[in-house]
Write a structure and sequence with these properties.
about 200 residues; alpha/beta; 7-stranded mixed β-sheet; about 40% helix; binds S-adenosylmethionine
C-alpha cells in the first residue's frame, strides 16, 4: 500500500489534471462505492480510472466467480499495478473512458450492469465530459447503475440532462472528503420482470 501511495503521488505530480488526487481513495470510499454500485449482483462491471487498484480489488472481492470487471485507465504508470492484481475476471485497458462502448463490444458483452467512475470530470474539457457521459449511458444495461465518486459536482451538470438527478452520499473519511453520485438507468434489470 505504501508503494501504491508513492506511485499515485508521482503520477499526480506528472499529471495533476488527470490523476486529480494525491493519494488513492480510502477503504471507506471503496466499501461505499461497491455498495452503491450493487456490485454483488452485477455480471459485467466497468471501472473508469482504476488508479492503483484499491476499488478494483474491492469490486473483485464483492462480485461473483462468473462476473467480469473491465478497467479503463488513461495513465500508463497505473496499468502494470492493475495487471499485477492477476485475477482471471479482470481485464485492464490502457485508454480513455470514452471508449467504453467499443471495449464492451470487442469482448462480446452486450452491456454493463454497473459503471464506476473516479475520473475527474471537473478538470477535463467539457466536450470530453459530455462524450463520456453519453457513452456510459449507452453502455449501461436497463436498470444498470452509474456511480461517480467526485470532489466536485461537475459530473452532475453533464449527467443530469441524460440520466436525471442522482442519489447523493457523502464520504468524509477520505482525503479530501468526497461525494458519491449514483444514477440508475431506466428499465428493468436483465432477467427481472420488475415484479
Ligand atoms: C481520482 S483518481 C482515482 C483512482 C482510483 N480509482 C482510486 O479511487 O484511488 C482518477 C483516475 O482516473 C484516471 N483517468 C483520468 N481521466 C481518465 C479518462 N479520460 N479515462 C480513463 N481514466 C482516466 C486517472 O489516471 C486516475 O487513475
Amino acid at each position: 500500500m505504501r508503494n501504491d501511495n508513492w506511485t499515485f503521488f508521482q503520477a499526480f505530480l506528472r499529471s495533476p489534471q488527470v490523476v486529480a488526487s494525491v493519494i488513492p481513495s480510502s477503504s471507506f470510499v471503496e466499501r461505499r462505492v461497491v455498495r452503491a454500485a450493487d456490485a454483488m449482483r452485477a455480471s459485467v462491471v466497468v471501472e473508469l480510472g482504476g488508479g492503483t487498484g484499491g476499488i478494483t480489488r474491492s469490486l473483485l472481492k464483492a462480485t461473483g466467480s462468473h462476473s467480469r470487471l473491465l478497467v479503463i485507465e488513461r495513465t500508463a504508470k497505473f496499468i502494470e499495478h492493475l495487471q499485477m492484481i492477476g485475477d482471471s475476471r479482470l481485464d485492464v485497458v490502457h485508454g480513455c473512458a470514452s471508449s467504453i462502448g467499443a471495449e464492451l463490444q470487442r469482448r462480446g458483452y452486450p452491456a454493463a450492469d454497473s459503471v464506476i467512475s473516479g475520473i475527474p470530470f471537473s478538470t477535463m474539457p467539457e466536450a470530453l465530459g459530455v462524450e463520456i457521459i453519453a457513452a456510459v449511458h449507452d453502455a449501461l444495461a436497463p436498470g444498470g447503475r452509474f456511480v461517480a465518486y467526485q470532489f466536485t459536482d461537475r459530473v452532475v451538470d453533464y449527467a443530469r440532462p441524460v440520466m436525471g438527478a442522482p442519489a447523493v452520499e457523502y464520504e468524509l473519511c477520505n482525503v479530501p472528503p468526497l461525494r458519491l453520485f449514483t444514477w440508475r438507468k431506466e428499465g428493468n434489470p436483465r432477467g427481472l420482470n420488475g415484479a
